[in-house]
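Entry:
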Amino acid sequence: MSRSNLPFQPPLPSTLVRSPPSQHKARAETPIAFIQAIVKAYERRGMNPETALAKAQIEPKLLHKPRARVTALQMETFSATAMQELDDEALGWFSRRLPWGSYGLLVRASLTAPTLGLALARWCRHHALLTDDVVLHVSEQDSMACLQLDERVDLGELREFCIVSTLRNALGVACWLSDSRIALRRATLRFAAPAHRASYPLLFDGEVQFDAQHNGLWFDAGYLALPVRRDEAALQRMLQRALLLTVKPYRRDRLLVEQVRQALTQHPQHCRNAKALAAHLNLSERSLHRQLKEEGASLQALKDAVRHELATELLLRTAKPLKQVAEAVGFRNEKSFSRAFKAWSKHTPEELRQSSGQALGGI
């Protein structure tokens, strides 16, 4: 993805991410096992990790202390240097290296998908072009979605590092594409619980199961319907600091926002007020307002947005009289509709139609 697309970073304040290694004051919570895994990648290539360790201010003696920890910033610095020196964005996970820019190509291939579900399907399909050591795919069952990773070869001593890194990278991209914090229900991993299993809540929210039948991340299938919100310009900005995909968790979970939008658009008869909408979504009215607030939205703002979109479509694509348009979007009279429309778009319904060259009149 870029030199900054690093795995195994616990959430950090953005100011800490920007600080140079000599200034970091973060807690050391990243297991030394993840540093050891990258050192093994150096050894496989007959290369010396001394320079990378020095840049990250990691003392070599820590490599021999199983319970040692490093900070996320040290992990970032060491990984970034290793990616450059090894010219491998996979940091030795796979039987063949992934040259610089490989993961960036995967993101670009997913950008034009209309929904996150299709974007993830493309990501998985194109990932197979980079390596066939593992296979990724997305499935749905009982309103749950699973991003699954199947192992096709013996990943050896880098198995844990490969599986967790690949899954976290894909999750980070999914969050970025949808601009949403995707809340995991659980993570299932085929390998036995490692000695540093206590660090796994920093890697995955929700329940973590070891010795599972499949490697996978489980989440509400509703996320797959979220629209892709990014474009090429956003991709270029992201690639400059792709580390944030795995370091900085998204604050907003847009799943409920999209569900409310769909309900207001597709089932307006069931969503006349907050109580009716909450019942339609199997929520309490209090939970509805609370969760929307957590996602940075309000019910009134979403109602206005849906009404504005529908009104604009009717004004531009039909010749319905304003009175009929007003009734269609839930207003009792033309005057109140015109006043609201001007507040939404800074111009009146008549001005919108005139600017589009359409004439007012009957159907």
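Confidence is low (pLDDT under 50) at residues 1-24, 358-363.
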